[in-house]
Amino acid sequence: MHNIEKKWEPKIIAFFCNWCTYTAADLAGVSRLKYAPNVRVIRIMCSGRVDPQFIMQALASGADGVLIGGCHPGDCHYSEGNYKMLRRFRLLQRVFKSMGIDEKRCRLEWISASEGDKVKTVINDMVEQIQKLGPLALPERMADLDKEIEEIEKEISKEEVVEHA
Questions:
Q1: Are 37 and 78 in the same domain?
Q2: Angle 37-41-47 (CA atoms, 0-180°, nearest 5)?
Q3: pLDDT tens digits, residue range 26-67?
């Protein structure tokens, strides 16, 4: 038997607005535009409904990147949902930086319902970017951090025992 090494492929979670980006992704599919199969799309009613916790949970669950797609500014079906997402996105970029996570792992794009070709381009570009960055492996990083914390707790316990003796 041959031992075939499986090439690593990035996992990307996409939150797409129902009215624009999800419709554009559907158009890309119907138009048979080819894009990388690395993205799992979650349809939401508005990009403004994406809670930053959803993004952090996706990464903590093993995703290597997150793509958010919404209506172009001024075209949101819920008036200002996309502006709400933009403010959250900017805050998330700061959080990623403080955590040592490359901010290219999370991307916000404005894609209207008629831009199926843009969905293809953005997905392919993001997959290529994430491939260059390599696996995020956040679950493994968190496990290592948990081990470090346990070691520190053991050291503190030992010191407390010595101090009380």
A1: yes
A2: 140
A3: 999 999 999 999 999 999 999 999 999 999 999 999 999 999
